[in-house]
């Protein structure tokens, strides 16, 4: 018996030593990989080599799954080798389901669906996300994040009904797990989509409920103020869309005060106790630019053109600073919308040469010829060059496949025919077509890509906000 016990002890010691050695080589390779990834500049090839060196050791399935995820993530974010990235992410997804490794499983599903969408394989992304959502109900953070992701995918496909349904499911789930903060994010996101669909009767009670949730929620001050900004932006947009310019003023004043409050708050590094609260709508620097943008929209509708120019200049200056450090697509969208407004403002105030220079700037920022042709058409109308205006609008119509822009261009082309005075049939035809299109379209959203569902890293930059 003693001999058997001694042999068992020796075997256990040998197994422990082997496990310790295995852990040592894995940690060493992982440390080298992270060192190369975070080098300046990053040494991605060496990082990939270190991670690939894990597999010949035949590691346990949990390490294998995590390594496939790490390789897939590095290849996806830092290279153009989408085929290898997809292969590693698919393996991470499959293996992690076998060993019930939640973090790897849901991170792999999220990244893999993004990759599928980039490759125009939306039909592969949606069932993957649905399955991940189905099996993630016991992990609140991932369940909410995947619901946001699928809702955003439906939004980009213009399937707003499905997106609203998912956001409603998310709001109810957040309520059940005790996260009023994330419940408000789901409901406000749904309100934004309802505004895009022009379902105004549903928007009003939803915004009322959101207002109550935001006021009653007690939590991180920056998160609370960001919810209030989201809520007020939707209210202001709702009023502007309805043409109620005077009704906007109280909400707009609150919005400006709110963003000034946020600019004085310091980021709190303490993580929320509820995992479902680990979301942030927008970085406060982005919110600042958005508030400037909404103020410009109001000033243009109210006829305060000097004020519109002043706020546009402030917003563009802030954007230039941010874009040196942040390449987020939403910043480019903000810049394009601001340029569109300032160009219209220059045309109305008679600064036509400046407007023409900014049309060129718009082309450089967007790479969008049809938008530039349309803006040039408006410029030609302002200087009474109707033949040139017609040519620009016609070119823009030929290039665009965007329904809202198409209807807008047709309407402006009809105005050119009216000014020429002898093209009645063409005017009637264009207006009939534009009206038919308008019946099928909702208003454009504040931004083309819904950014409210991502968890952003906190930033320590100082905001210069003044109204």
TrEMBL record:
The keyword Repeat applies. Belongs to the SCC4/mau-2 family. Heterodimerizes with MAU2/SCC2 to form the cohesin loading complex. The NIPBL-MAU2 heterodimer interacts with the SMC1A-SMC3 heterodimer and with the cohesin complex composed of SMC1A, SMC3, RAD21 and STAG1. One of its GO terms (biological process) is chromosome segregation. The lineage of its organism: Eukaryota, Metazoa, Chordata, Craniata, Vertebrata. Its main location: nucleus. Pfam families: Cohesin_load. This is MAU2 chromatid cohesion factor homolog. It is found in: Nucleus, Nucleoplasm. SUPFAM superfamilies: TPR-like. One of its GO terms (cellular component) is nucleoplasm. It comes from the Eukaryota. The keyword Cell division applies. Keywords: Cell cycle, Cell division, Chromosome partition, Mitosis, Nucleus, Repeat, TPR repeat.
